[in-house]
Amino acid sequence: MAVQKLFHISIFLLVCTAKAINPEAEALLRWKSTLIGANPLPSWSIANSTCSWSGVTCDAAGHVTKLHLSGFGLHGTLHAFYSAAFQNLTVLSLNNSNLVGVVPANISLFLSLTVLDLSYNNLVGAIPYELSHLPMIVKLKLGNNHLTNPEYASFSPMSSLKLLSLANNNLSGAFPQFITNCTGMIGLDLSANAFSGPLPDSLPQMVPRLGYLNLSFNGFSGSIPRPFSRFQKLEALDLGNNNLTGGIPEELGMMSALILLCLYSNPLGGSIPASLGQLHSLEDLAISDADLVSTLPPELGNLTSLTGMFLEGIIYLEACHHLLPGCKQ
Ligand SMILES: *[C@@H]1O[C@H](CO)[C@@H](O)[C@H](O)[C@H]1NC(C)=O
Ligand SMILES: *[C@@H]1O[C@H](CO)[C@@H](O)[C@H](O)[C@H]1NC(C)=O
Ligand SMILES: *[C@@H]1O[C@H](CO)[C@@H](O)[C@H](O)[C@H]1NC(C)=O
Ligand SMILES: *[C@@H]1O[C@H](CO)[C@@H](O)[C@H](O)[C@H]1NC(C)=O
Ligand SMILES: *[C@@H]1O[C@H](CO)[C@@H](O)[C@H](O)[C@H]1NC(C)=O
Ligand SMILES: *[C@@H]1O[C@H](CO)[C@@H](O)[C@H](O)[C@H]1NC(C)=O
Ligand SMILES: *[C@@H]1O[C@H](CO)[C@@H](O)[C@H](O)[C@H]1NC(C)=O
Ligand SMILES: *[C@@H]1O[C@H](CO)[C@@H](O)[C@H](O)[C@H]1NC(C)=O
Ligand SMILES: *[C@@H]1O[C@H](CO)[C@@H](O)[C@H](O)[C@H]1NC(C)=O
Fold first, then answer.
1. From the DSSP assignment, how many helices (H) and strands (E) are in the chain?
2. Is 63 near ligand 4, meaning CB less than 6 Å away?
3. CATH number, residue 131
């Protein structure tokens, strides 16, 4: 009799515990069980309430809204990550982990996602174009992986996107045209890939709010588009280490918000236009190894914010320190 009672109690407890595991916790534990290594994420246990697990943030209703799992050294894949149980997930950050395998297309079914950061992993395969269907995505960071070209033609315009980093991957071909459809973008980093061909003239018109543009360490060729002068909010322009020719356009002096201008390591040729002296916010100017033949225009003496200037390789460099109080020569 006592034994039977105990049995009933155990059943009752079992059912209770089972009920206490919400589907989100179950989904997270299922994914955790696919990770490699000795007990990653020890706090992720049914003994603790899901909302207290490391890296997990919940809303008032107890639904998981944010997963900040960067830097836990998690080793495994994302194959088992997707679950329909996450209805209110807004942030998924797994940067700086040890993830391998592909980016599953079903990550794009997290419809409330605003931040997806998978940078600094070892992910391979094509970037799923389905990620462009995320209706609320604001930050998409896939840099520093081994990702290859997506099916660009299937991209949707990402009107909510503000920041895109695809840096340091294995992407190639022409400047991705879908970017001209991301009209609200503020930061774009395509550096350290194998993109080639011309820079799009239409970029400032299509993506006028860009504040950060890094296209360095690619194989872009042709000249720096003169319409780039219409970037009125651009603070950092890094075009270093490409195959750009045709000189430094005088019009770049009209990019009045510019704080950093890197044009180093390009076969640009020509001289330093005096118009650069109008860039009153400029702090860093890197134009070394750009086949420039020039005296330093006296107008650059107006660049009172300048703290760093990298001019090595310019022929006929003169009296730099007289003109530029901040010049480190
Ligand atoms: C709950 O998580 C903490 C770590 O955050 C851990 O120290 C503790 O042992 C966990 N409790 C249980 C019952 O697993
Ligand atoms: C990646 O995560 C680390 C924490 O581990 C953070 O400090 C860093 O800023 C993140 N880097 C990027 C590129 O988001
Ligand atoms: C999500 O995609 C991965 C990789 O394609 C797949 O292995 C997994 O079964 C998918 N998950 C669901 C729930 O469909
Ligand atoms: C998601 O959150 C919103 C409010 O933030 C709430 O109205 C909605 O019911 C939640 N959805 C689910 C499936 O929990
Ligand atoms: C990167 O791309 C090149 C050629 O496009 C290919 O040969 C190489 O295997 C790729 N590497 C990875 C890690 O995908
Ligand atoms: C931009 O979006 C429009 C509307 O969806 C589409 O017709 C066009 O093909 C897109 N352009 C590019 C380059 O993706
Ligand atoms: C641009 O990207 C390169 C390579 O990824 C990086 O080394 C450089 O610091 C970046 N430039 C700026 C201005 O952030
Ligand atoms: C740079 O462009 C020239 C043609 O303009 C081409 O011959 C050369 O191969 C390119 N170099 C690189 C490194 O892409
Ligand atoms: C810039 O410098 C030049 C030559 O040093 C000077 O004549 C000119 O007035 C300055 N312009 C401005 C806007 O400060």
1. 4, 20
2. yes
3. 3.80.10.10
